[in-house]
């Protein structure tokens, strides 16, 4: 029997409240809370995917002047800019694919660690808080969706 359901015994109840039929979900708030948490997590994933695709990857992939200037200052040029943009776009798409969600969050988290280091080392920490702020929801997604990693490993083993 799951922790969210309870069966009613044949012993008469001494309370004036009517007894619930067998198999009725008693702890409904626990399942409703879990459902709300799953919906909120999915919404967060969609929001982050939109951010990475539109606000972060797109300027790099179209060669926007602000992105190009930053990568030129780094000495990485357009090749670095397009590479980071492609990685961010791939991560954004993978955040929406169930079997890739956890891995995508970890990969984007690694990009954010790199972005933080670059912000501190090259740009004097001007925007260093942004990658740190993004690490928090990415870590949450990676942890909450970690069960999908086993599914991904099974798929990869089957394909090999």
Summarize the structure.
With 160 residues, this protein is mostly helical. Helix content is 69%, strand content 0%. The chain is globular, with a radius of gyration of 23 Å.
Structural descriptors:
single chain, 160 residues, mainly alpha, 6 helices, 69% helix
Q: Give the ordered list of helices and strands.
A: HHHHHH
How far apart are the termini? 38 Å
Overall shape: it is globular
Mean pLDDT, all residues: 86
Largest sheet: none
Radius of gyration: 23 Å
State which percent range the strand residues make up: under 5%
Write the layout of secondary structure elements.
Blueprint: H1 28-61, H2 65-74, H3 77-94, H4 101-121, H5 129-144, H6 148-159
Helix pairs in contact: 1-3, 1-5, 2-3, 3-4, 4-5
Describe the structure.
69% of the residues lie in helices and 0% in strands. The chain is mostly helical. It is globular and about 50 Å long.
């Amino acid at each position: 029997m799951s922790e969210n359901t309870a069966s009613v015994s044949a012993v008469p109840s001494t309370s004036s409240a009517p007894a619930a039929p067998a198999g009725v979900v008693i702890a409904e708030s626990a399942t409703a809370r879990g459902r709300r948490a799953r919906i909120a997590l999915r919404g967060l994933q969609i929001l982050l995917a939109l951010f990475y695709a539109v606000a972060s990857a797109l300027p790099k992939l179209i060669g926007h002047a602000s992105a190009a200037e930053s990568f030129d200052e780094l000495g990485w040029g357009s090749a670095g800019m397009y590479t980071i943009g492609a990685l961010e776009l791939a991560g954004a798409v993978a955040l929406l694919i169930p079997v890739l969600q956890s891995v995508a969050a970890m990969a984007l988290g690694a990009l954010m660690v790199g972005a933080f280091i670059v912000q501190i080392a090259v740009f004097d920490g001007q925007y260093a808080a942004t990658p740190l702020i993004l690490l928090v929801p990415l870590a949450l997604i990676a942890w909450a969706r970690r069960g999908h990693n086993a599914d991904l490993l099974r798929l990869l083993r089957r394909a090999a």
